[in-house]
């Protein structure tokens, strides 16, 4: 998504300078806006790498060797950490989807890493193994029978999960269990993928490095058991929703020309297939030793994503404060430079809409993406950037909170209806609401000012910024004042946000002293 672009800075420079000279306007707001736009421009340049040489590739899995023995083995790594936040049924569905890949079964080995070292997950894996025989082996089984068995399996997992939250430990010896079935015939064993449960050793005194640490252990364990040349890494909330995805990926790996470009990691084995690549999603990013400049730029664009917080806050606060004090930051509507500003804004929005529609999504998706970008910039990126700084200066160690994957019926219904769920921590919601209230207030007070002082020519751009923010984020206003359901923004968070917004309104003008 393009937020702003290069020429904006040029005309900004020019304009801020003339303004400052003619009207003795404080320089700090100009400087902050200028820095914001430089940062936007920097990220914009990085993002152009995605657009520079777009390539569309088609795969022909039917051209892969018919002889199954010629297909390379694949190890599938799945990570889970806590059955109370990552319910067993979801995790086991991921395991089952990997076991049911349309690939020679004896060439697939599935490894489940359980970072919680929980008996709930171990038992669930055993249940999944039992069920997988119906799912994987007896594909011919009547649908009714499979459904019945799946319901039994689901029930077994639910009963097994009763004590999920107490089952997780940070202090345990390793457990490795290769799922096995003593009654199985040898021929059946051939036809089933290997399924291995792995809980690495964890001690409070040793850093465990989260998912990365878990993957390192799986690399070592799988090297002894199956040692496949290709690894597919899945989170426990991912699925192999297309059974042919492994075959599709092999089309790339069996084409030496692409293999060079698609290599991911240098590890004791050949390569690691990322799930984004295997599903061939547009915009997937592949990391490797031989990264070209464009690939480096794509990687940098991802890494720098959280610094959006700086220019976002810049544009969400400074033009508004200047508007309240009648200080114009942008060209007059009658100024020829105004056309440049308007053009860049409209063009970047249209480009975003065009990209969204090109990938087959509706025009509304571009609005939703804009909202998510704004909410992320206001909240997640703020904490991510703060956390990174605190960690860098040794003030607080960066930590990782597992995302809650528990979805109850109510939540699911809301999700399906497209209703925003604001049940998160007030720390995450308050910054979004505060900015919203501040912008809405700035717009109305600013408009009153424009009407009274007849400064529409000078201040219109600045009044448009908070208006645009308020319209795009109408769902925030709705969640604060219209909605009454459980997932609305609670009155206490709204009140807190009113207080924060008032504070910014009163003390924001401090930036005008310099
Ligand atoms: O100590 C830990 C913590 C997490 N996980 C697993 O790591 C995965 C990702 O965790 P999640 O809480 O789902 O984080 P997300 O933010 O949803 O994950 C995104 O961000 C992660 C990096 O921050 C990437 O690794 C993921 O692939 C990406 O989907 C899950 O399977 C977890 O079970 C572990 O194995 N051990
Ligand atoms: Mn996740």
From TrEMBL:
Tell me what topology the record assigns in the membrane: Multi-pass membrane protein
Entry keyword set: Cell wall biogenesis/degradation, Glycosyltransferase, Membrane, Transferase, Transmembrane, Transmembrane helix
Q: Where are the bilayer-spanning segments?
A: 27-47, 278-302, 308-330, 428-447, 459-477, 489-513
InterPro entries per UniProt: Cellulose_synth, Nucleotide-diphossugar_trans
Answer whether the UniProt record assigns the keyword Transmembrane to this protein: yes
Compartments annotated for it: namely:
Endomembrane system
What segment(s) does the record annotate as region Disordered? 164-187
State if Nucleotidyltransferase is listed as a keyword.
Answer: no
Pfam families the UniProt entry points to? Cellulose_synt (PF03552)
Give the protein's recorded name: Cellulose synthase-like protein
Annotated source species = Rehmannia glutinosa (Chinese foxglove)
């Amino acid at each position: 998504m393009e937020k702003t672009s290069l020429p904006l800075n040029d005309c900004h420079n020019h304009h801020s300078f003339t303004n400052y000279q003619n009207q003795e306007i404080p320089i700090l707001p100009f400087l902050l806006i200028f820095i914001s736009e430089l940062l936007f421009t920097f990220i914009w340049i990085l993002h152009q790498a995605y657009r520079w040489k777009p390539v569309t590739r088609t795969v022909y899995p039917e051209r892969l060797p018919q002889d199954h023995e010629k297909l390379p083995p694949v190890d599938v790594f799945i990570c889970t950490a806590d059955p109370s936040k990552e319910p067993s049924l979801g995790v086991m569905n991921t395991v089952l989807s990997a076991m049911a890949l349309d690939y020679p079964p004896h060439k697939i080995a599935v490894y489940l890493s359980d970072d919680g070292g929980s008996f709930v997950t171990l038992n669930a894996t055993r249940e999944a193994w039992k069920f997988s025989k119906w799912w994987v082996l007896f594909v011919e089984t009547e649908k009714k029978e499979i459904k019945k068995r799946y319901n039994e399996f689901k029930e077994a997992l639910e009963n097994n999960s009763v004590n999920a939250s107490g089952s997780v430990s940070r202090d345990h010896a390793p457990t490795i269990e290769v799922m096995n079935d003593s009654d199985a015939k040898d021929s059946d064993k051939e036809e089933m993928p290997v399924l291995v449960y792995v809980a690495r050793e964890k001690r409070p005194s040793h850093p465990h490095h989260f998912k990365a640490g878990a993957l390192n252990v799986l690399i070592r364990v799988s090297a002894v058991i199956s040692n496949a040349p290709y690894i597919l890494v899945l989170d426990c909330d991912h699925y192999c929703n297309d059974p042919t995805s492994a075959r599709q990926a092999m089309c790339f790996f069996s084409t030496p020309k692409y293999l060079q470009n698609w290599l991911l990691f240098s590890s004791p084995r050949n390569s690691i297939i990322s799930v984004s690549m295997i599903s061939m999603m547009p915009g997937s990013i592949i990391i490797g030793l031989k990264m070209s400049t464009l690939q480096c730029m794509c990687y940098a664009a991802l890494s720098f994503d959280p610094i959006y917080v700086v220019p976002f806050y810049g544009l969400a606060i400074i033009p508004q404060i200047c508007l309240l004090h009648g200080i114009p930051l942008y060209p007059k509507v009658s100024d020829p430079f105004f056309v440049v500003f308007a053009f860049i804004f409209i063009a970047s929005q249209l480009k975003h809409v065009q990209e969204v529609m090109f990938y087959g999504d509706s025009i509304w998706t571009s609005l939703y993406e804009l909202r998510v970008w704004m909410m992320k910039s206001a909240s997640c990126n703020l904490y991510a950037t703060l956390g990174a700084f605190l960690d860098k200066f040794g003030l607080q160690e960066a930590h990782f909170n597992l995302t809650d994957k528990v979805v109850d019926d109510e939540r699911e219904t809301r999700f399906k209806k497209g209703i925003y769920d604001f049940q998160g921590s007030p720390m995450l919601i308050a910054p979004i609401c505060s900015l919203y209230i501040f912008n809405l207030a700035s717009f109305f007070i600013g408009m009153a000012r424009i009407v009274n002082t007849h400064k529409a020519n000078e201040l219109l751009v600045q009044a448009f910024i908070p208006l645009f923010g308020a319209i795009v984020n109408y769902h925030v206003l709705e969640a604060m004042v219209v909605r009454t359901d459980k997932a609305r923004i609670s009155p206490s968070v709204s009140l807190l946000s009113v207080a924060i917004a008032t504070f910014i309104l009163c003390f924001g003008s401090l930036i005008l002293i310099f």
